[in-house]
Design brief:
The complex is a heterodimer of chains A (134) and B (670). Chain A is mainly alpha-helical and 134 residues long. Chain A has one domain. Chain A contains five helices and no strands. In chain A, helix 1 runs antiparallel to helix 2, helix 1 packs antiparallel against helix 4 and helix 2 packs antiparallel against helix 3. The longest helix of chain A is centred in the N-terminal third of the chain and has 26 residues. The model of chain A has no long low-confidence stretch (mean pLDDT 85). With 670 residues, chain B is mainly beta. In chain B, 6% of the residues lie in helices and 32% in strands. Chain B starts with a helix and ends with a strand. About 6% of the residues of chain B have low confidence. Chain B contains four helices and 43 strands. The longest helix of chain B is centred in the first third of the chain and has 17 residues. The chains are: A mainly alpha (134), B mainly beta (670). At the A-B interface, helix 2 and helix 3 of A face helix 1 and strand 36 of B.
Chain lengths: 134, 670
């Protein structure tokens, strides 16, 4: 089942994503319940709580669930990317700057993952090395 | 060219619309709330009542106290402070130094109506005094925020004349030479929605038993014509020498025949009636009504002249029952303060059928015109037009012409062929409706365009019609009840203004009864006794988005010496579901600015529940802070023990958005 084990760069990207989503959820919850920020208790503040929670769930799946097919994994990455864009826009319109920063970090996580997709993975390198040896 | 941030917000809005299928934008506040107001006759009447005993000692009136001692800072309604500790260079360091939560707040979800808290905090007698929408007074230490005492009127918390519980503050009087140790030498007054005026000792918070009956004056004892609801004392009385001038608010849009809007002058210590004034002729008082004074009055203390912003007669949107000349209705009117004698009056709307009440305080300032000092009065209006008058004669300083206006096609109505118009200073609201918002139109699949085509619109003063008319500006303003502020040294006048389009539709009585048989839908108002009921609503699409192009609110500065506009900028931000819309849209505003000698403007007023400082010269925002609800009350500023404080009451107003709070917040340099 070597194919289902994320390569290290993927794991790094997913880890950044997980940290960003965790931060985002914490910030969103704080914003929703802290009464001095102008957005607490609003539909917009609740929306980003939900979107951050979904992001956290998806990031966790990418990182911890090994039995995910490549197609589903790619779908999750696309959905997370959309979530990041939507949450960042919503956060911008909520004037929730820390949440925008968390989304920027999440984008870094996605970028690291995508970059590692283009670079040869360790398993591929191993295979190439083996072939070269043959 | 729109700033990048605005483009991002608009893109974000489109994105969220696509994702959620719902609108995030609104502006003009979809919650329609009838503005406070009611009625008035044609002259002053000396009271025949006997003075209450004991007869008050003659008092040489104190007209100017130290501090922010009236609803508008001073008697001239200038909203100006000579304080200059906080200036454009250091205002960025302003911090909240104390706050008080009164506990008197309702979100309207329970038995108590929503609270609209618009009370200007007064600073006088080394104390901050503020009334709450539960009709209590808080006396607060000006430097620490510690509550010195509270006074409870135990008023009914029923919204008997207004949609919400409201107060715009307290009034203050003090004897010219207060007797040491004697009670009620300094008095704070609070009015209630059920027409009671309480007098309270400013030092102890105890009721002044010598005032009227056990410290409470029942204004409703004088409600003798068309008594259909109590005369609500929401605007604090104006105090001059030893007299209180009392206007009142009533229930708008409900009745064709309503109480005439009598102004009462009473003794500040005893509550004895001195004189009354009515803007409506006595013979017409029974068949119409209102033309009351529900907004703040002003006083020329040197000359002893009282200035009244007189509102429209009833019913508000149909004048078939009042075709006679009513020259004092919807006017600014000057009276001799001591007697109530009419000095002059200038009507700013003839035969008002738009509810264009004169709704803001006449601002008094001496201006320099052609090398001469002229005693001026600036009357702002819901139409966004400014009438700058010589306050001694009522004659215009900048020309006022009569302009032909669209005529009514409603059977029984007879509209005025012309209306007064002043081009200088430049009106805040443009001549023509700004056009349909593309964003709102697309989001509603063309609903805005279709509705617009179905309405009658012929420019300013398009009369209400049976087919439905577009009113722009509408009764929501233009300039609202806060009015403007002026720097008396430079003659710079600053005012916030809204841009709201509404739909006015008269409905034949039989049809109205049919449509409201199983309950009164939102936006329907009976005008009982008139041949037509009325429908009024903001021109918004089904998503609640305003159907007209922004801006929705601006802040403007004028040089009154030349009449020229110095700058005008979108002000505040529309907020819906927490999302802030582009800054270039501005926000509908309620409340007013103040000006300090150091060249700063402080203002809340906007929908986004932020309070701001603006550079008077440039109009640029130089400071902002978040408060708990829209700060629709006029702010106050004062010096105490060497430190300048700026105080905002953040209470909210349902016209902006359904958000209420009980917060009083003071800011100062640390």
């Amino acid at each position: 089942m070597t194919a289902n084990v994320p390569p290290p760069a993927h794991r790094t990207g997913s880890l950044i994503l997980l940290v960003a989503a965790t931060l985002a959820l914490a910030i969103a919850i704080f914003n929703n319940f802290w009464s001095g920020n102008g957005i607490h208790g609003t539909a917009g503040a609740l929306l980003v709580v939900v979107s951050s929670a979904l992001m956290l769930g998806a990031a966790s799946a990418l990182l911890f669930v090994t039995r995910i097919g490549r197609g589903l994994r790619s779908t999750l990455v696309v959905l997370i990317s959309l979530d990041i864009i939507g949450t960042a826009l919503a956060a911008y319109m909520l004037d929730a700057n820390w949440l925008v920063a968390a989304m920027a970090l999440a984008l870094v996580g996605i970028a690291v993952r995508l970059t590692s997709d283009r670079a040869p993975t360790p398993s591929a390198l191993t295979t190439m090395a083996q072939r070269g040896a043959e | 060219m729109k700033p990048l941030s605005d483009c991002v917000r608009i893109c974000g809005l489109l994105f969220l619309l696509l994702v959620s299928g719902t609108a995030l934008a609104q502006s003009a506040g979809t919650t329609q709330s009838a503005p406070a107001n009611v009625n008035a006759p044609g002259g002053a009447t000396e009271s025949t009542e006997q003075p209450a005993s004991p007869t008050p000692q003659p008092i040489v009136g104190t007209t100017h106290y130290d501090g922010w001692y009236t609803f508008n800072g001073n008697l001239e309604d200038q909203k100006y402070s000579p304080a200059d500790q906080i200036n454009p260079q250091n205002v960025g360091e302003l911090q909240k130094v104390w706050e008080v939560h009164t506990g008197d707040v309702s979100d309207g979800s329970g038995k108590i109506a929503l609270t609209d808290w618009s009370a200007t905090p007064l600073f006088v007698n080394d104390t901050v005094y503020v009334s709450t929408p539960f009709y209590r007074i808080f006396a607060i230490a000006p430097d620490t925020g510690k509550v010195k005492w509270t006074y409870d009127t135990h008023s009914s918390l029923a919204a008997v004349t207004q949609p919400d519980l409201k107060t715009r503050g307290v009034a203050y009087w003090q004897a010219a030479s207060p007797k040491p140790g004697a009670a009620c030498q300094k008095i704070v007054y609070i009015g209630t929605m059920d027409a009671k005026l309480h007098a309270v000792d400013a030092d102890s918070g105890k009721k002044c038993e010598g005032f009227a009956k056990d410290g409470v004056l029942d204004i409703n004892q004088w409600n003798t014509t068309n008594n259909k609801w109590p005369l609500s004392i929401l605007q604090p009385p104006t105090v001059y020498k030893d007299t209180l001038f009392i206007g009142w608010a009533g229930k708008d849009w409900a009745e064709a025949e309503a109480p005439p809007g009598t102004v009462f002058a009473v003794d500040a210590q005893t509550g004895r009636l001195k004189w009354t004034f009515d803007a409506l002729p006595p013979d017409l008082a029974k068949t119409t009504g209102t033309s009351n004074v529900w907004a703040s009055m002003s006083i020329d203390p040197e000359r002893g002249i009282l200035y009244l912003p007189v509102s429209s007669p009833s019913p508000n949107f149909y004048g078939g029952n009042r075709k006679e000349e009513l020259p004092l209705a919807t006017s600014v009117t000057a009276l001799e303060a001591d007697t109530g004698k009419l000095l002059w009056s200038r009507q700013i709307v003839h035969h008002d059928i738009w509810d264009y009440d004169t709704n803001s305080p006449p601002v008094l300032v001496d201006i320099n015109k052609d090398g001469k000092t002229v005693p001026a009065l600036v009357q702002s209006s819901k139409m966004g037009i400014f009438f700058v008058l010589n306050r001694l004669t009522g004659e215009p300083i900048y020309p006022i012409g009569e302009r032909k206006v669209p005529q009514t096609d409603v059977p029984g109505e007879q509209s005025s062929p012309t209306q007064p118009f002043a081009a200088t200073p430049e009106p805040t609201v443009p001549e023509r409706f700004p056009g349909i918002s593309t964003l709102a139109d697309i989001a509603s699949f063309g609903e805005c365009s279709r509705t617009f085509k179905s309405l009658r619109y012929d420019g300013r003063y398009t009369p209400p019609s049976l087919q439905g008319s577009l009113a722009y500006p509408s009764t929501a303003g233009g300039v609202e009840w806060g009015g403007g502020a002026v720097d008396p040294n430079s003659g710079i006048y600053v005012v916030n203004s809204s841009y709201v389009a509404q739909i006015y539709k008269l409905i034949k009585r039989a049809d109205y009864e049919q449509q409201t048989r199983s309950g009164t839908p939102h936006g329907f108002y009976p005008q009982t006794g008139a041949p037509y009921g009325f429908y009024l609503n903001n021109f918004v699409n089904f998503l609640g988005m305003p159907c007209w192009d922004p801006p929705y609110g601006t802040l403007s500065a004028y040089d009154l010496n030349s009449g020229k506009l110095i700058w005008r900028k979108p002000f505040g931000e529309v907020q819906k579901w927490g999302f802030y819309m582009p800054k270039s849209w501005g926000s509908v505003t309620i409340g007013a600015p103040l000006i300090t000698k150091s060249g700063l403007i402080f203002i809340g007023a906007s929908m986004d529940a932020r309070v701001r400082a603006i550079d008077l010269k440039s109009g640029d925002e130089v400071w902002q802070a978040q408060v708990d609800a829209p700060a629709v009350a006029n702010p106050a500023t004062y010096m105490y023990k060497g430190k300048q404080y700026v105080v905002f009451v953040a209470g909210g107003n349902a016209i902006l958005k359904p958000q209420a709070s009980d917060q009083v917040a003071a800011f100062a340099l640390k």
